[in-house]
Amino acid sequence: MRTVELLCDPPLDGAVRAVWRRLADGGVDSLAHNPHPGHRPHLTLAACARMPAGAADRLDELLADALPPAVRLTGLLSFSARSRRRVLSWSVVPTLGLMRLHHRVWEVLEHAEDPDPHYLPGRWSPHLGLTRRLPPEAVTLAHTLLGRHPDLTGTFDAARAFDSDTQRTRPLGAPAG
Q1: Is the pLDDT of residue 98 over 70?
Q2: Share of the chain above pLDDT 90, in %
Q3: What residues contact 126, with CB distance under 8 A and at least 6 apart?
Q4: Predicted pLDDT at 164
Q5: Domain count of the chain?
Q6: Is residue 119 included in any domain, yes or no?
Q7: In percent, how much of the chain has pLDDT > 70?
Q8: Which InterPro entries does this UniProt record tie to the protein (predicted)?
Q9: Is residue 72 part of a domain?
Q10: Host domain of residue 125
Q11: Distance CA 158, CA 160 (A)
C-alpha cells in the first residue's frame, strides 16, 4: 500500500503524542505502541496499491504550494475494524481548503492501482489515528481516560509518501534546495 500523508507541526505532533501516551499509560492499545521508527501523527489523504508513473513529482509540486494548511482537531471518531473492534481517532475539521487539496491529490492519483475506497473523495473522513483495533470495553476506557477531549489547532507543515512494502517514506512538497 502507498499513502500520501500530511504531517503535524511540532506542537501539534507533541499534543497528539501526549494523547497516545495518556491512552497507553491507562492501558489502552494506542498508537504510542507502534514500533516503526518513522511513525508519527499524520493525516492520510490517499491510499492505493501503486501510484501512477510520475505521480510523486506531481504531488511534490502540488504539496509545495499547499503547505502549510491550518488544521483544527475536534471530537473523537470511532471506525469499525474487524469483528466488533473499533479504532479511535481525532476528527479533523474538513475545511474547504483541505477538501480541495484532497480532491487535487486524487486528480494526480486518478489512475492509481487499487485505490482504497475509504480515502476517495466523497467517502473520506479526515482524522488522526489514536488507537489500534480495540474491543468495545477498551473504547469505553479510552473515552473515560480522555474525558472531555479538547479542540486543538495547528498546521500540517510537511507531507510524505509511505510505502508499506518497503516501510520507507519519501518527503513530498519539500521546497527545492
Answers
A1: yes
A2: 70
A3: 43, 91, 92, 93, 94, 98, 102
A4: 87
A5: 1
A6: yes
A7: 97
A8: Cyclic_Pdiesterase (IPR009097)
A9: yes
A10: 2-165
A11: 7
